[in-house]
Design a protein that fits this description.
Layout (H helix, E strand, L loop, with lengths): L18 H4 L1 H9 L21 H12 L13 H4 L19
Amino acid sequence: MAEAVIRPMEVILVAAGSPTGRAAEAINDLTRHLPDPGEPDFCPTCAGRSWPCAVFDDAASRVHTARLQLGDVVPLDLHPRLWPSSAQPVSPVWPSGPAFE
C-alpha cells in the first residue's frame, strides 16, 4: 500500500480586522478541502468527491467576496485545475466553469 502524501501547511498570524483576518474562516475551509499532492482530482475531506468539491467552491466564493485573490491562497500546482487555459494567471479572477456554477 502506498503511503499518502499530505500537503504541507503553514500557520500564520494576521490582524483579525484585516481583509485576510476577516476571511480566515473561509481560508481555513478552503485549505481543508485542497487535494493532496499527486491527487488533484479528489477532495481528501469529502469522501468520494471530486475536486473542487462543493465546500471548496463555497469557501472560494467567500474568499472572493472578501476581495482577496483566490490564486494567492491556492497552491500554484492547483492553478491549472482552476484556470485550465493558463497555468499561472497573471491576475487571478474568480474562475468559471462547471466546478464553479
